[in-house]
Design goal:
alpha+beta; FAD/NAD(P)-binding domain; D-Amino Acid Oxidase, Chain A, domain 2; 2 domains; globular
């Protein structure tokens, strides 16, 4: 049996930022990850920091705080790529560009310094987009990061801070003594701690079900691809019009029927949504995305998703049609009913904290770690923990936990 002050379960950006933040406050921290740092959804996303796509209110506040903290981290962790490159959403028709102007006005009222670009302005920022577009929205606060590099940099920082990294060990059970969480079981061994922070993304669900908690989120599969280096250069992250059908931030007066922005082939893929998006890394390679579905814990690619994505993106960005594909992958993120993460103490179980449900973890991971530190009384945080409470997702009746339930489904891992 090995003991620590804190055990963090999960080695993606959420778990790693949490471990580093708590270690900075002088706690003895152990992080347990079933594979390698960033193996799951953190290492399989396109790295978009799309502030313009976050809803007004708490979601946007969280995203802006996250954008600030990512940039701060880039100054401390020089070994990961962060670009304050701005972002645009292109629109095809003059009617849709009128909607874009209304959307930008709403975003301006929310405090974002956005503007509408005409065709020539949009093409100057992304010359490979189809030249018959009407224009685009532009947000200078959007950015891009290499999340896989970030996970590696955070893991190295965690070790420098004294965090003990236990990799390739699967957590199979939360340990309880009465109403208190006392640690976890992993790899056939018991690890003890005064507090356990569950930060394992979609795999958190299988660990809390034996405690009597209901389903907290749905698994959202996101697929992406990476091309060879291109002979041209564009800086911003770029979304197609389908972003207005996917993101609730675009639900403003005048867009009561967001399906008008869905991709023209949507009827052929009834179980999937397509978020058209691309970004170019500093080495010239282009990230492409992104078919979305909720078909379960499938972190593998699908032929339907690939067919739709490549067809749509090579139509909108014709230059991509000649590019070789170097990688194609899928990751699964946890989607709560309001898209906000769960950062809270579990009622009735002393010493257990959830930091999960981060569907836009590129922007929410760093703030989430600050909220956890505040919950533990280690520091103040500019964000209240109330919007991220577990209670908002629970039935009205008091939550009870059980200590006589068998271990978690072996298909689920931390």
């Amino acid at each position: 049996m090995r003991s620590s002050d804190i055990i963090v379960v999960g080695g993606g950006t959420v778990g790693l930022t949490t471990a580093c933040t708590l270690a900075e406050h002088g706690l003895k921290v152990r992080l347990i990850e079933s594979h390698s740092p960033g193996w799951g959804a953190s290492g399989r996303n396109q790295g978009f920091l799309g502030v313009q796509t976050r809803k007004s209110g708490v979601e946007l506040q969280l995203a802006l705080f996250g954008r600030e903290l990512v940039e701060e981290a880039s100054l401390r962790l020089s070994s990961f790529s962060f670009r304050p490159c701005g972002g645009m959403t292109v629109f095809d028709t003059e009617r849709d560009l009128e909607f874009a102007a209304e959307f930008v006005s709403q975003r301006n009222r929310d405090g974002l310094p956005m503007e509408v670009l005409n065709r020539d302005q949009a093409l100057s920022k992304c010359p490979i987009v189809r030249h018959d577009i009407a224009g685009a929205t532009w947000n200078p606060l959007d950015g891009h990061q290499n999340t896989g590099e970030l996970c590696a940099a955070l893991a190295a920082a965690a070790e420098r801070l004294g965090v003990e990294l236990n990799l390739e060990i699967r957590v199979t059970r939360i340990l309880l003594e009465g109403d208190a969480c006392t640690g976890v079981e992993a790899g056939g061994e018991e690890f003890r701690a005064g507090t356990v922070v569950l930060a394992a993304g979609v795999w958190s669900q299988g660990l809390v079900e034996p405690l009597g908690l209901p389903t907290l989120f749905a698994p959202l599969r996101m697929q992406g691809a990476l091309t060879e280096p291109g002979p041209w250069r564009f800086e911003p992250i770029v979304y197609g019009p389908s972003a207005a059908s996917v993101y609730p931030a675009f639900r403003i007066p005048g867009n009561d029927d967001p399906s008008r922005f869905a991709h023209q082939d949507a009827a052929r893929y009834p179980d999937t949504m397509l978020l058209e998006c691309i970004a170019q890394r500093p080495d010239g390679r282009v990230l492409m995305g992104c078919p979305l579905d909720m078909l379960g814990l499938k972190d593998v690619t699908s032929t339907a998703g690939a067919a739709w994505m490549f067809s749509a993106l090579t139509s909108r960005f014709p230059e991509l049609g000649a590019m070789a594909i170097e990688r194609f992958w899928a990751g699964v993120a946890p989607m709560t009913k309001d898209s906000l993460p769960i950062i809270d103490k579990v009622p009735g179980v002393d010493g257990l904290i959830l930091n999960t449900g981060h569907v836009f973890g590129n922007l929410s991971s760093f703030p989430g770690a600050r909220v956890v530190a505040a919950l533990l009384g280690l520091a103040d945080c500019k964000l209240s923990s109330t919007p991220f409470s577990l209670s908002r997702l629970l039935p009205d009746q008091e939550t009870a936990h059980r200590t006589d339930t068998p271990g978690t489904d072996e298909r689920r891992h931390a």
